[in-house]
Amino acid sequence: MDLSGKFYKAFSDRQSAIEKQYGPKQAEKQHSKGKLTAHERINLLFDNKTFEEIDAFVTPADQPVEFGKVERSYGDGVIVGHGKVNGRLVFAYAQDFTIMGGSLGIVHAKKIAKIQEMALKMGSPIIALIDSGGARIQEGVASLSGYAAIFQNIIHSSGIIPQISVIMGPAAGGAVYSPALTDFVFMVNHTSYMFVTGPNVVKEVLNEDVSSEELGGAEVHARKSGVAHMIYDDEENAILALKKFLSYLPSNNVENPPIVNDDGSVNEINEKLRGIIPEDPNKAYDVKDVIAQIIDKNSFFETSELFGANLVTGFARLTGKTIGVVANQPKVLAGVLDINSSTKGARFIRFCDAFNIPIITFEDVPGFLPGIDQEHSGIIRHGAKLLFAYSEATVPKITIILRKAYGGAFIVMNSKNLGGDFSFAWPSAEIAVMGPDGAVAILYRKELAESKNPVELKKELVKKYRDKIANPFIADESGYIDEVIDPAVTRKKIISALNALNNKWVKVPARKHGNMPL
Known about the structure:
Blueprint: H1 6-21, H2 24-31, H3 38-45, E1 52-54, E2 78-85, E3 88-95, H4 106-122, E4 126-130, H5 141-157, E5 163-167, E6 170-172, H6 177-181, E7 184-188, E8 193-195, H7 199-206, H8 212-216, H9 218-225, E9 230-232, H10 235-246, H11 287-294, E10 301-303, E11 311-318, E12 321-328, H12 339-354, E13 359-365, H13 372-376, H14 379-392, E14 397-406, H15 407-412, E15 422-425, E16 430-432, H16 436-443, H17 445-450, H18 454-468, H19 472-478, E17 483-484, H20 490-500
């Protein structure tokens, strides 16, 4: 073929047109808002020169002129394709706010649906880089049906391939349900926001003045609603964190997570752990200090750090292998379980179970948070989610009881009778129906009321209760836990247990699905 002829000229003209479409003027629009362009985001995410774009030259659907001009651009406001991230195949789509505000029309939607279906077929993760004004008004029901197709694909792929959304601008109206359905949501401070109804509607209906940031900014969703799992101060750091995050995950549900080289720099025996729990059982400490002393160095990637902070969740590595970590946090609300932490934990556990990631639980829980607000808001139903998730999970499940393990919360936090594979306790553990102070107040109510020195009597009875009922050796001798261990050998014990569970297989009942208490 003569590439200097008319055929090549037509090809060349289109290339020039699309380059002009994504020129400096469009880039400046994004940069002036502290945002990257869609192409810059793609280039930052994928390994150098590995991204292959698909459907770059499709054009928007025709619309009646009287309902506003539709820009005759190439690509219809979204870039879709595949490439390598950390050397592994990943699919992605990036909405382009410079083209009709990144709004979703039917062609735009079909491009996303195509790449979703390819990702599922290939068994590879899919990343959504979202920066869109929502459904394209001019296209009416066609744009709405496009969203429905995208939602359906996310649901079909759920638990089969990892699906991650990065909000890099607006996500409003029905558009928010696309990221909400995915496994994890990243947001960027001050430049990204999500809401079902925007500030103008809130003003009109409720007569309340609220900014986009106050209504649905990154901080709001990371701290209050729990919709966002990770937030960052700029897009560059968000994408770099996403690349690191992907390194913990398998490509699909039939693969195991990737293994990184273990340099052997972390000793299996760590004597620092012997002094990490305060002698006063009511004194707080940071459970992240415990986690850091057990896992591979600097390998903890926390999720939902600001939401339900009384429960810590995240991914880490042991001898280079990915694990999921769930830990009560005594620093926050004394580590009790409440509605937010229960929901957060359940969601995380189910993700780990879907993608073959063993779950390590560090337990120090005095119970569920009491009070009218929690009861009326459904702590029973939400707490049951955590219980259901632990019981349902068939991946290796190991629990280390660090200190308190009281009542129903002890059961919920992966107890052996709930299906936990190994349950170890430190000598500092207290395993009982309730804490010593509460138990003594109930059991010896009459004696304490009649005592001339109730304070001293209670102190004596509390010690007796700890010695006779709430110490871990009784649970060990009764077989309710597997072993009371020296804290220094915790890493060694977990590694040994995981090796023993390497070929764990559980036959689940034949059913369509369970009915989780949502």
